[in-house]
From TrEMBL, chains A, B:
Keyword DNA-binding annotated: yes
GO MF term set: transaminase activity
Keywords noted in UniProt: Aminotransferase, DNA-binding, Pyridoxal phosphate, Transcription, Transcription regulation, Transferase
Top-rank taxon: Bacteria
Coiled-coil blocks: none
InterPro entries: Aminotransferase_I/II_large, HTH_trans_reg/aminotransferase, PyrdxlP-dep_Trfase, PyrdxlP-dep_Trfase_major, PyrdxlP-dep_Trfase_small, Tscrpt_reg_HTH_GntR, WH-like_DNA-bd_sf, WH_DNA-bd_sf
Transcription regulation keyword on record: yes
Pfam (any one): GntR
HTH gntR-type domain residues: 4-72
UniProt-recorded name of the protein: PLP-dependent aminotransferase family protein
Amino acid sequence: MTQEFRYQQLEAWLLQGIEEQRWRQGERLPSIRTLCREHKLSKATVQHALQRLEVQGQVEARPKAGYFVSLQAPAVNRPVSRARIEAPRPVTVSELLQDIMRRSAAFDLLPQHSPGDLPPGIVALNRAIGRSLRRQSGQDFQYYDEPAGNVALREQLALHMARRGWPCEPDALCITSGCQHALFLALMACCTRGDVVAVESPGFYGVMQIIEQLGLQVVEVPASLETGMDIDALEDVLQRWKVRACVVSPAFATPGGALMPESSKRRLLALAESYDLAVIEDDIYADTALGAVPDPLKALDRDQRVILCSSFSKCLSRDLRIGWVSGARWHARILHLKLVTQLSSSQFVQRGLAEFMADGSFTAHLRRLRTELRTQRDRLLQLLNDWPGSIRVSKPQGGLAVWVELPSGEDTLALYAKALQQQVVITPGPLFSASGQFRNCMRISFAHPWNPLREQALSRLAALCALSP
Amino acid sequence: MTQEFRYQQLEAWLLQGIEEQRWRQGERLPSIRTLCREHKLSKATVQHALQRLEVQGQVEARPKAGYFVSLQAPAVNRPVSRARIEAPRPVTVSELLQDIMRRSAAFDLLPQHSPGDLPPGIVALNRAIGRSLRRQSGQDFQYYDEPAGNVALREQLALHMARRGWPCEPDALCITSGCQHALFLALMACCTRGDVVAVESPGFYGVMQIIEQLGLQVVEVPASLETGMDIDALEDVLQRWKVRACVVSPAFATPGGALMPESSKRRLLALAESYDLAVIEDDIYADTALGAVPDPLKALDRDQRVILCSSFSKCLSRDLRIGWVSGARWHARILHLKLVTQLSSSQFVQRGLAEFMADGSFTAHLRRLRTELRTQRDRLLQLLNDWPGSIRVSKPQGGLAVWVELPSGEDTLALYAKALQQQVVITPGPLFSASGQFRNCMRISFAHPWNPLREQALSRLAALCALSP
């Protein structure tokens, strides 16, 4: 039994009284003074209990007259609590895809809120945000932040990018609600309805969803699991269609963790100039590098046509909802779209994060994270190595997942549903394609620490695949 | 002079040494042990200083070798700090409008971060968010929230709406990044490019900006300062054009604070059924009611065609960035658009807010806020009463501002620029119209407490108007 606070005991006693009609609807409750005396409670405790009942609609406060039992019972039903895992109801493909998107964005094979302690980096981050909250004063809360975001945070991000070979000004950055928001603003800024956008295939499903919702057209460019987008194939595409923008992830592209070589980056930018493309760089995985952190494509951008998008979600916390975008020649329009779609971001969160970066805690966190991710990737590759049958597995140097190719004929959409019934979450291949390719492939994550339960989950998955040895 | 922490003193000493080339580029700094001994500091303090220099790019850590002076000086320039008030640079009308939008959203005649104490409601809110941060455990930070938002917060919001006459289920609500985001999702969900949207005139500029960015067309329906949108005029509009959606603020519409009577609400909904309209209800000012809080239009919606949008920005804090939307027949599409545009919202902020609501602190805060707003409105009306000349002033029963009509011929766009040079911010009338109407009108806010400085600002404004007595 959980321990109850004294206001909770009083709240329960009053609620019982109302249910048993000790006080009827519209009747006055005992006065605060009476409740204090009879229950040996302070005035603050009694008021706290009464306020809680007021919020629930059980009682009403009438100025200078006291608290009365409400005339109507509250009309809201409590929702049934929902388990994290439930079998999907594939009414339409799009609904199934939404279901998968929601579950898989956590990158957890075995979703569960592990008890345990927070990592030290997150403890430091939370303390910094807490300090930022306590430093609010006066009427601070009455002001919206400027659309570009907090200057101190943009300064820290500019320093962070400078260390990766791209010296940038804080004013070249706009803070967003995560990378998805950054990608949305980028595509909305540089494309109009009907425009064609080139994407990696396999590639990030979030981008394909944005393209769909903005009424754009997609063309899939084959991508290798080692070196990313095939630049020859891109050139072929550019010759055949008028392409407006190209979305790429040079650093550890999802799903396979490909790393684009410098030569490909240079060819990509040359093509972008020839064909007048906007290049949208999804840089979200860069800081999960297991070895050296690659320079961004943006560092080579001499022509103001690379829009860099990123966030803290993969390398720090998915709950911050802080990302950033550097919009090149489209930056002014992106700032305006940020204002129009959302006005501004939370200053107290940004200030805390800026302090966390300024005092070196972020650097220390990244150092620990990369060591852990290397261990977790190695363990996953070792476990997959023991699977029977001929499967192909990517060997990423960064990112949070590997791409597994099962023998052709295997169906990972069916596998997703079967695995889910056993509490195991994979991301099926077709999600990474606008045209339903990669049916025999899946993404498996190493974002979470391996423990016996997760290793068993992986074994159950192997059994479900029924691979012939 | 501000007091420095010991790590800051060491940081400054090391930085000076680097600048004076006591240690040259690429050279090793004294060891941590040496620095501890010579400066009589703890190891943690020395490490803190070194980490800060590492973040700034001044030094580099090499595993097991120590800290070295970086080979390159950091490439980032610190931005020049910008004053809050500066004369606008009217390159294009749209840029001027953006400038005004940014400044006026704070609703402050005399923008300044007042020192002073936070109001008790904000202190309680910040404590609740702090507790929510400290309660994070395990891998909580690794998971995205579901797109609809935290269930506990939606339960509290459902109770809050139920008390206003609209019993709703938590699943009918989707949490957003403020009301602007809610309005954006609503319009994106129920309209496609080229569709016509009816708005109040004068009406909220944020809505007109969304309409522009989504490639929709606007038709302005005259609105009275007392009773809101003119329903006869709306009917006339509906007969002449195919209108897809209508955006209204029945509760204390900005700029004048109009309150739509029940009879108009019923007629509006009847028209919406006849002409198959989506009705987007901007409910953001409801909780600033100086008297009774009106029921939402949504409470009368029998046909699932009213999309309710609101947020905590006007009645609690502009820095939370938490709003909500109830999307009626478009709700599933809105949830999907939330996912596609932003993925999810911060759980720790939502949990803290839910607790703040559940323990009655929000109700207590609203009670105090309304009393203060009444005082502030009364004082503004009293001060405006002393202005010379014939001006017309709205008498709002809620909201945060009054609408002032100067004699025709006055130009509030010019007044805006002149006032800004004297640190005074008004919102000029043309911002509330897509066609530049209301040139002789302006919105003046009573959101902030009056003090001698703000009262002097209002006097300066009166002088700038140069009204003849």
